[in-house]
Amino acid sequence: MQAYINFLLEDIASAYCPEDYFKKSGNTRPELDLEQELEESERFLNCDREPIFEVYCGLKRENFPPKDRLSEDQLTQVTVAFIKMMSSWSLFVDFPDDLPQPMRYELLLDILLKPVMISQYGFFGFDYCTGNPEGCELGEYCPCLKIV
Fold it and tell me: Rounded to an integer, what distance in angstroms lies between the CA atom of residue 133 and that of residue 54?
């Protein structure tokens, strides 16, 4: 399985945001920056209409093996590489420190199928916190349980 993981890590490395991704617009006038920032604010309010992350990065959820086929070390390799790649797209994820690697892996892969807003002027984040531990995706690792 490690041979496949090595290929997967190469695919993740190839999925980084291209350096010229935002330069393609040809924007050189400062007044357009303000217009673009306002457009991004509008897009943020309607994020559910944005493309899913697979569209941007080119990775497909079905190419990732089930978590139970991977060792703890392999899960860590993939999750660390995936989080770094997400950062190149101005995306971040906030997991509780004690969240097990198999859960991190599954939550990260689910992001591939979620609408995301790729922003030139900010970040788009996934923190999985609704403020209510009932029905939380993080289950027993929900940080709200420590507060209640």
Answer: 29
